[in-house]
Structures are given as C-alpha cells and as structure tokens.
Amino acid sequence: MMDSPRHPFLHGLSKHRGAPPTVVVIFGASGDLTARKLIPAVYNLAHDNLLPADFHLVGFGRKAIPDDEFRGLAAGAIREFSRRELDAGVWERVAARTTYVAGGYDERAAFDRLAAHIAAIERGLGRDLQCLFYISTPPSVFAPILTHLGASGLAARHVHGPLHSKVVIEKPFGRDLVSARGLNRVIGSVFEERQVYRIDHYLGKETVQDLLVQRFANAIFEPLWNRNYIDSVQITVAEDAGVAGRGGYYEQSGALRDMIQNHTMQLLALTAMEPPGSLDPEAIRDEKVKVLNAIQPLGTGPDGDVARAQYAAGMIGGGPVRGYLEEEGIEAGSATETYAALRLSINNWRWQGVPFYLRSGKRLARRVSEIAVNFRRPPGTLFAGETARFDLSGNTLSFQLQPDEGLSMILNTKVPGLETRTQPVKMSFRYATTFGSNTAEAYERLVLDAIVGDGTLFIRGDEAEASWRLYTPVLDAWAGAGRAGMDTYSAGSWGPLGAEALLARHSHVWRQP
Ligand code: NDP
Ligand code: BG6
Prior knowledge:
Layout: E1 22-27, H1 32-47, E2 55-61, H2 67-81, H3 88-95, E3 98-102, H4 108-125, E4 130-135, H5 142-151, E5 166-169, H6 177-190, E6 196-198, H7 206-217, E7 230-238, H8 247-251, H9 255-272, H10 281-293, E8 306-312, E9 314-316, E10 319-321, E11 339-345, E12 355-361, E13 368-375, E14 396-402, E15 406-414, E16 422-430, H11 431-435, H12 442-452, H13 461-481, E17 487-490, H14 497-504
Parallel strand pairs: 1-2, 1-4, 2-3, 4-5, 5-6, 7-12, 8-17
Antiparallel strand pairs: 7-13, 8-11, 9-10, 11-12, 13-14, 14-15, 15-16
NADPH dihydro-nicotinamide-adenine-dinucleotide phosphate (NDP) binds next to helix 1.
C-alpha cells in the first residue's frame, strides 16, 4: 500500500520542517490583539523551534515607532501575556529579526515603503521570503489595506510558487450578508482564495480539533451520530466577563455578531458535518458549508427560535458588578444584546428533528464553553417505575473547550450495594491530567498553520456567507424591534427566562455546564 501524503493537520509538530522562509507583517501592530495574542504566539513558536530558520517579523501602523521601541513593547507583551516566561535567549533571536514600518493604512507610499523594507530584508538574507500579511486592525481599514496590498504588488509576490503571499484576516468578517459579500469581493479582487486565511480563534482550541479526532478516529461514536440516537445538541459559550473597556466595539456588535455567528457556528459545523472524504482543508470546509446551508431559517416572532437579553447589575465572583446599560461607552437605552440563545434545525437526512441549541453571553455565572451531545433515553422497560431507586439520565457526551479542557460522558451506573439502585455518573478525561497543562494557545497553532499554508482551521468565504445568510434576517428583525422583546438577566446568573422558555417549548432544559 502506498503511504498517504503527509498532511499538516496530522503532522503538526513536524511542521517547522515544511515552513518556508517567512516574513510576517502585522497591520495594527500597536494594538491590543497584537500584544495579547500575536506577539506571544510568535514568541512561543520560536521557543518551540517551530518557526522557519529565516523568519522576520515586521510591525506596521500609523504611529511612528522606532524599531527598538517596538521590540521593547513586544518584550513587555510577552512578559505580560505569554503562557511562558520570557527566555532572554529565545527572545533575542526573534528581536534581532523584528522591525517596524510606520504608515497609513490608506497611504499608497507606505505600502511601497513596506515593499522596499521587505526587499531589503531579502537582500540581507540573500534569499526570497514568503510574505504573511496579518490584518489586525479595526474592520474599517480592512478594505484599504487589502487594496494597497494589491496595488503595491505585495499580494501577488511569487503567486505561482511555494513562496506566494498569504493574508490572515481577523474578525469581524462583515456585519451582515451584504458587507461580508462586499469584503469577499475586495479580497477576491486582490488575492486568490488559497492565499486567504479568515481567522476564528475557536478553531485553534485543542478540544475543537479533538472533536474531529473523537468523531472520526473512534468507531463507537459515528454509528450513533444521527437522529436515531441523538436527542439534541447544546453548544454553550459562556463568559463571566462583561464588556468593560470594549463598550464602543460591543455596541456595534452584540452577542449574535460577536460570538454566535462565528465561534458557535464553527462548533456546530464541526459537530454536525458529514465525514469529509479526507483531511484536506477543502474537503473539511466543503462539508462545513453543506451543513451550514442545510440549517432552516430562524423564526424571529414570539415563540420563535431566538431569545436575546442584556445583563442587569448582579454579583460575579462574590462582588457586585454593573449592568450593561451602566457600563462605560454604552448608549442610553441601548438595544445591543449581551446574550443570545437559539434553536437551529438542520434539514438533512442525519439531523432532521434534532434541535441544536446555541447560547452565548457575557456576565454569566462562569466562564465555560462546551458542546454537549444528548443521546436519547433507552426504552424504559427494565429500570423504570421507581424513580427513587432508578435515577436515570439520558447519556450526554460533552466536549469542554475551556476552562479545564476535556471530554466527559454521563452514564447510568449501579450504585454499589445489595439493592439495585441506579445513578448517573460522570466519566471524565482531562487533557491537563493526561498530557500536562502547558498546551499551545489557539493563536500559536493558527499562526503556524497560516505560515505553512494549512487552511483547515480557517474559514472560507462561502462559509462566512452561509452563516450571515442565516443570521442577517434575525439581526434585521432585532434592529427593527429596538428594545421591544429584549429580556434581562442578572449578572452572575445563567441567563434570561426567555432562553429557558425557548427550550421548554420543545420539552428541553439547558444543561448546567
Ligand atoms: P485595536 O483597537 O487595538 O486596534 C489595532 C490597531 O489598529 C491600533 O493599535 C491602531 O494602530 C490601529 N487603529 C485603531 N483604530 C483605528 C482606526 N479607527 N482606523 C485605523 N487604524 C486604527 O484593535 P484590536 O487589536 O483589539 O483588534 C484588532 C482586530 O482583531 C479587530 O478586527 C478585532 O475585531 C480582532 N480581534 C480582537 C480581539 C482582542 O482580544 N483584542 C479578539 C478577537 C479578534 P496604529 O494607530 O498604530 O495604526
Ligand atoms: C472574541 C470576542 O472573539 O472572543 C470576545 O470578540 C470574547 O468578546 C472572546 O470575549 C472570547 O474568546 P475566548 O477564547 O476567551 O473564549
């Protein structure tokens, strides 16, 4: 039998051998994401020797920042945000190849300067580099940056060879179907789709990748993974944090745009998609798009499929916290939802009749993200009748994304003793216990994947559009209704009554994660 070709998803730890010489250019390099995630990711990849030998980092932004000052800022970011302490030896290697170019995102000459800067690095090395452009700015300047990458010739460098340019685009990818299509058009006018990496950092989380492995590397799940055995699926992305410091951004966004449309939909797509023919990125993304396109339009009227709410004052971690409307930067009478819950129906052979419930919110009881697959109850013929003796639960398989990444299964078990009594118990596997706790952060994986050209964990243009097609009518309905129908929930609770009612209408209850 012939060996199957080496695939980056399968051979992650040996990726550096295939990583081409690269310059990563970060647009928005003085920003929050760069400091909290991108610089620490680059540093940790360097620490693990996963970067190519010829690696350069170039920051780009409007502020004039001397190279040394940028290196100082980067070192400070590593000290503050990296999962590892700063190791002087590792950092010196990266710092020696870290520079900064100042310029406007809409200034053609600045992109010519950037091109000249990259050419000078290449001359110094005596070899060509692959350019990875990471757009980490507010979305208002995504289009000018893309356009100038095209006009300056940077996008088309080595376009037919292994060193072709790539672009990573941060969220939000549009704010509705029309704007997402518009952004896709701008991208498509400059880059070929194979050069484009739309990031959703949830796809870089360990448990999310493990979902593919659990589903398709174990024989026991797939035969049951359908409407015959699964009763419902619940996807929860709960945060205890509020919007403090990000009020301006959040007012333009809300829970549906910020979390549901992207992160939870990716979780749903990986949970519900058909087995792909291979681990090829396109094969996986084709299956994700198919299942996203099979989701039925959502009912937005009373007793429909959606619930939204804002947090009111309450208690988090034992202390009082303000309500959303009292947070800094929030408009009086704001109609921005901080919580959304939905019931999705997938109209295909595998899932017809199985509700997928999604919920996400700020200022909930605790930070926890999970996918819970609830199986149907067994026929109640044997252990039935005496509920005091036979405390039975449906089986639930749950993937805990964070914190405390792991997998658990609820099974009904005999309580030890002479009398037959049953009780649900939880069988758990924790990554930290089995593999140690210092696992790579999502951004490390994703930055490396973009460098080596593996798009598996990135979103394709048609995926983004499929999700916006579903949610744009909901956003329009909510915008039209203003605050009418907006529920509230106390900070520190598990959400509004409307979300309970949404499930109760279908004889379900939310699981306590
Ligand atoms: P920032 O608001 O920190 O902006 C990044 C940089 O962009 C700034 O340092 C500034 O650089 C430049 N910039 C800021 N405002 C403008 C403006 N109005 N016009 C032009 N340039 C501007 O953003 P973040 O770093 O928080 O986020 C960057 C991207 O990443 C966004 O798309 C965001 O949605 C996404 N993201 C962020 C996350 C986070 O945790 N921060 C999480 C997930 C995604 P300079 O002045 O030097 O040019
Ligand atoms: C971001 C959202 O995409 O994800 C934030 O913009 C949210 O509002 C964050 O807090 C949550 O990410 P994580 O990885 O901390 O769950």
